[in-house]
Amino acid sequence: MIINIAFTLFIAFIGGSLFKKMKIPAAYMTGGMIAVAALSILTNQMTMPRSMKFFAQVISGAYIGQQSSRNTFLQLKNLVLPIVLLMSLFTINCFALGAVFVHFFDMDWTTALLSCLPGGIMDISLISIDMGANAEIVATMQLARLVGMLIILPQWSKLILNTVSKITSHKKGAHIHRSEITSSTKTILPTQQVQSDLAILIIAFIGGYIGLILGIPVGALVLALIFSFVYKLRVNPASLSPYIRYGAQVLAASIIGSNFTMHSLIQMKALVLPIIILFVGFLLINIIFTLVISRLGLLDVQSAIFASSPAGATDISLIAADLGGDLTSIASIQITRTLFAIVVLPQLINLFVQFVVG
């Protein structure tokens, strides 16, 4: 059993490392999941206890909590209307497309709704396990959304700019923002980094354990996130090492990938049309949000496009830094979108499934 678990983690690491070299988004999650799933289908020997999801959720919550800052929340007061509009559009899209998937593609409600969440692939996949959804379907749908958006986003933004607006992009503001980030980056010794990482993880694990005891949906991730964020505000530690995030991705990829079977592979063929529908839904949100917010003068067109793109917050910020936009507003809205997708929407889905679907 232990040997199989270690082998599964090793295969996930190899797959993730390969995808990392290929510069594929969420490399350790996607590459690890594909590698483990492939061997699981072929050999049926991949093993990873689902109880391990607690550790992956806590690390994920710790990492997300460290991405926020006081500046993020100070910026939010100027972005209330855009955020309310975008979160409303995402909620409507989630339940509308979820209903389509349930009635026309034979998904259960929890799986269908979680497949439509605009959050991180690892976070949503872990949530799907916690809420009893079909994790393979959710992970596949989330992967398609993430990779698809990142691939087409540069050309998509240019298309919208050319057809909807002639506004000049705020490249000057983008360069200022990047220089600010560079100047505020801390240089610390390896031992200090280890101590900082341990402190963050201990705080997050305390929160995660409380969430587990309380028994609320996705409680470990949510409470770990909150504890990590409060610690960030009070202490402002060094950024959590990316290698810890990679470890959580490998663990999550092992959990999901080990559940794939030949039946799962056959089932994936039925997801082509749902994936296309999901993608179209998010592109429509992107257009509607951009048109409304830019015409109200709350954001320029370029910034509105990136702020409402449901891909990784870090990846979107990097793309925006190259193509132009108000990076502070984009980052604030993207972080809010991530928090909304993993904290608020799962609770709404849980209430809907319990009290409406029954």
From TrEMBL:
<keyword id="KW-0812">Transmembrane</keyword>
<feature type="transmembrane region" description="Helical">
    <location>
        <begin position="198"/>
        <end position="231"/>
    </location>
</feature>
<feature type="transmembrane region" description="Helical">
    <location>
        <begin position="339"/>
        <end position="357"/>
    </location>
</feature>
<dbReference type="InterPro" id="IPR017516">
    <property type="entry name" value="AbrB_dup"/>
</dbReference>
<keyword id="KW-1133">Transmembrane helix</keyword>
<dbReference type="Pfam" id="PF05145">
    <property type="entry name" value="AbrB"/>
</dbReference>
<dbReference type="GO" id="GO:0016020">
    <property type="term" value="C:membrane"/>
</dbReference>
<keyword id="KW-0472">Membrane</keyword>
<feature type="transmembrane region" description="Helical">
    <location>
        <begin position="26"/>
        <end position="43"/>
    </location>
</feature>
<feature type="transmembrane region" description="Helical">
    <location>
        <begin position="272"/>
        <end position="293"/>
    </location>
</feature>
<protein>
    <recommendedName>
        <fullName>Ammonia monooxygenase</fullName>
    </recommendedName>
</protein>
<feature type="transmembrane region" description="Helical">
    <location>
        <begin position="79"/>
        <end position="105"/>
    </location>
</feature>
<dbReference type="GO" id="GO:0010468">
    <property type="term" value="P:regulation of gene expression"/>
</dbReference>
<dbReference type="InterPro" id="IPR007820">
    <property type="entry name" value="AbrB_fam"/>
</dbReference>
